[in-house]
Amino acid sequence: MDNVLTLTALLHGPDSPGIVARTAGWIFENGGNILHADQHCDAEAGMFIQRIEWLPAADAVAEAQRFRVFANSLGMEVKIGLSTERPKVAVLVSKQGHAFHDLMLRWTAGELPCEIAFVASNHTTWETAARQSYQVPFYHIPVTPETKDEAELRLEALLREHDVQLAVMARYMQVLSKAFLQRCPIPVINIHHSFLPAFAGARPYLQAYARGVKLIGATAHYATPVLDDGPIIHQAVAPVNHRHSVNDLVRRGQDLEKQVLAQAVCWHLQNRVLAYGKKTVVFD
Amino acid sequence: MDNVLTLTALLHGPDSPGIVARTAGWIFENGGNILHADQHCDAEAGMFIQRIEWLPAADAVAEAQRFRVFANSLGMEVKIGLSTERPKVAVLVSKQGHAFHDLMLRWTAGELPCEIAFVASNHTTWETAARQSYQVPFYHIPVTPETKDEAELRLEALLREHDVQLAVMARYMQVLSKAFLQRCPIPVINIHHSFLPAFAGARPYLQAYARGVKLIGATAHYATPVLDDGPIIHQAVAPVNHRHSVNDLVRRGQDLEKQVLAQAVCWHLQNRVLAYGKKTVVFD
Amino acid sequence: MDNVLTLTALLHGPDSPGIVARTAGWIFENGGNILHADQHCDAEAGMFIQRIEWLPAADAVAEAQRFRVFANSLGMEVKIGLSTERPKVAVLVSKQGHAFHDLMLRWTAGELPCEIAFVASNHTTWETAARQSYQVPFYHIPVTPETKDEAELRLEALLREHDVQLAVMARYMQVLSKAFLQRCPIPVINIHHSFLPAFAGARPYLQAYARGVKLIGATAHYATPVLDDGPIIHQAVAPVNHRHSVNDLVRRGQDLEKQVLAQAVCWHLQNRVLAYGKKTVVFD
Amino acid sequence: MDNVLTLTALLHGPDSPGIVARTAGWIFENGGNILHADQHCDAEAGMFIQRIEWLPAADAVAEAQRFRVFANSLGMEVKIGLSTERPKVAVLVSKQGHAFHDLMLRWTAGELPCEIAFVASNHTTWETAARQSYQVPFYHIPVTPETKDEAELRLEALLREHDVQLAVMARYMQVLSKAFLQRCPIPVINIHHSFLPAFAGARPYLQAYARGVKLIGATAHYATPVLDDGPIIHQAVAPVNHRHSVNDLVRRGQDLEKQVLAQAVCWHLQNRVLAYGKKTVVFD
């Protein structure tokens, strides 16, 4: 079903009987054809969550708007997208480039349904790569303890100016402040280089080495005001042993970071992820 | 949702618009509440497949029967089960007991929603274990080239007599004949000790050792008249290296065999697997 | 090389040049033939660790004794075993039997090079299985807050009486006291049902569920006076998602627990594991 | 031990008692200090294989030469390298760039201990990337059925001219002829996009899709005159299900291909791989 125009809706709201029938009925009556439908009911939270992808009947944009009205009438919030839309994404990076290059190459290869609005960094390491190899704007936003507030204001302005809908921290080695995250209008996906909740905070590979674990991990999560505590989207691990130095853990971990971050970003862009409380539902 | 009475339907038939809406609508109108619904459309085969699990309104048995009539009216074949039903399963084993014990212990622990109708074997190795440890009937059906037809007739009679709905070959080291499989009224799940289609046939671990592969595998599939060629339900692999002898491959592989077979049997019993052609859909 | 009489030495001590040459030279001069040799140098700890397995020249028992004297003369501590020796192991279990049955079945199948001296439990759930299915002594040692000291003294007496060399906590749901572990003359392997250091302590699956992780784990480690903090021998993980209830995590996790514990016990029995500080070297 | 000058020898030859002691003794007597030593004896083939890494005493180049003479005197063939050496590697690529970019980025990041002598391709797709992003020579060698012999002669000339010691087929979609491989003076590593020996030959993802497997794989192997039959260095798999189209398998498989190929190339460059017959020993 590559290259076919579809609508994808991600709904959530209080659980009530018959929602599956109502949404499927609406689409059928409006001439649409459901390709995929998946739902989840969190009984503890009393929440119903559904993802539906369908072939619309005629005018997809109008149908999306009418479906939104319908879903709201059921008491559901809804995020709805056309398969032809390409939301704008900002990539934040520092000196380590593995996750940055991986994302940009996947984007170049057509794996990520988005536009890269810009790359921003507190260093200039990847300025040439961003501009020349990947042909995207690059902003250098230096950060010092004194200028951190100012730098975050500049980043926020850029996100608004470019109409960015998702920010990705591709090993951006600055902790975004609570104030920034609270007023940030869009989701921010971060990759933490450990199997959270183990080894939150600084230098997780060194922590893992000191503890003598036999697996290292990487965790992609939505950034929240509490450091490394946001809803987890994806995690993966790789085996390590006594022969591995801290540097070996770093190298092995970078492969995990790349894959876990790219997968999380891709799922997010495909409207597959809903975060609520400390959890996510991922309709993969 | 453990211990709640639910209905689970597995439908398949020619794809046509609105099936999702119709089945969901029927359940809603009949007072049911959908807990899970998953579907798949194989565009090449023009086939629609759906699994729905719901809380029925009142009389589950009657509702199951009415749903069957409804599904047939849509041109769909349907297999429908109550969560309280425990289909009868026969376990076939030879001398190697790892997969047999694993299944029986999981069954004892309540992991497999079925009754073990009997254990049958061409050897008596596990007769005491079957009867005393697991408290199930055991039938010794010796097989020689001369008595193979007769043995299969006896097995078939036992399956019918006990009203068995699934046979599991837990390392049963006899090839069931085409004739048996063609007239066998129930599905047969086999575990092959390789990553099919690599190393079909005899002595797969020896073949894997000779080829120098770096991963060994196990494959659970439905037995069909063509050896090791049936629809695959589940597969898993484990790493091996030059230090491993053929015996080491056997030992490592046994862990795979146990897990892969148990998972396949469990999915089958939960009405999660539909086989068509050489493929399966597994709604996990 | 199954069924061949070999010697296996596990040495450790301060690193100094030439140890590899000296040990290999000693074995060669004494007519032995090295089958495997592996070593590790922890530069930070200044420690050299080696595992050598060889075919001895003539009298294996005498050669083992002479090698010990030789290794000590190099300033190395050494643990040395004959492949024909079967150290005595005690298995501790509570009500949940999956890890217990898994160990016993592997032992019955010849996978674990040991004798099971006895099974001890604070419940009687597995008394019949231990005695009749597996034909090993069973001791019921009830534990209440009031009788805990007494119970541990009884366990300690049994370990000494049976000349046990390894105790395995196969989901033994009692925390062994600091006092017991400090005076316990033998290593104790525990299986913790999480990916340590995440979710140490009680109810790790519930903790994992609440945190919304996407992988659950199991960790085999040597028990030390600090709970869930001992040197890690082996770890494994399995994916989970929003569809899994806490009970599903428990069921999935049990498969991990079985494999991780059995692998750790097997490596220990094969003289492959050396613990020092908070780490282990595993020569697998 | 990063950035320390070491010698690494990979020896193989007929097994005879005392080789471990002799090589370790030689290094010790010559003032070296062994960092790692691993060996394997293939009893069926009567072959002994060893990898030793050590800190040399003084003049590493001279010591390497003297060790070679010593190893030959034991009847062993030996490949010996200094950790500061960077063998020259040629990368062959066609239109699909994922494996090419992955290798080049790892090389740029310092993960691969080699020089990239040149990139050659039957297309010009990656000419700019090779020259500008990665700053390496690029040769366009078009291949048609009529010009294949000529193209291979040109490739061979380039390999000799640049003194290349390893060629890597990073999804180079041409089958190298038997004649080329027989006269090729250096090893060639290929990545096959299936779990060999399953799905050798053309379009493995389509074959895997048609067979309905539940895991797809990638295999790095040394190219030999028989297609997809060379000694396997590394393999990995990833799960797939009925939701995945052939294109999905391709995308998922590309991640496997990248990692498996990069790992195989890295091991080869670190003198960790010895191929003999249809097998490899990998001292990882």
Question: How does this model look, in words?
Answer:
Four copies of one chain form a homotetramer. Chain A is α/β, with parallel strands linked by helices and 284 residues long. Chain A folds into two domains: 7-82, Alpha-Beta Plaits (2-Layer Sandwich); 88-282, Formyl transferase, N-terminal domain (Rossmann fold), CATH 3.40.50. Chain A has eight helices and 13 strands. In chain A, the strands form three sheets. Chain A has a seven-stranded mixed sheet with strand order 7-6-5-8-9-10-11. A four-stranded antiparallel sheet of chain A has the order 2-3-1-4, covered by helices on one side. The first copy, chain A, has a two-stranded antiparallel sheet with strand order 12-13. In chain A, α3 (98-108) links the parallel β5 (88-93) and β6 (115-121). In chain A, α3 packs parallel to α8. Chain A is globular and about 60 Å long. The B-C interface holds B 1-2, 36, 97-98, 101, 105, 109, 111, 129, 132-133, 243, 245, 247, 251, 255, 259 and C 1-2, 36, 97-98, 101, 105, 109, 111, 129, 132-133, 243, 245, 247, 251, 255, 259.
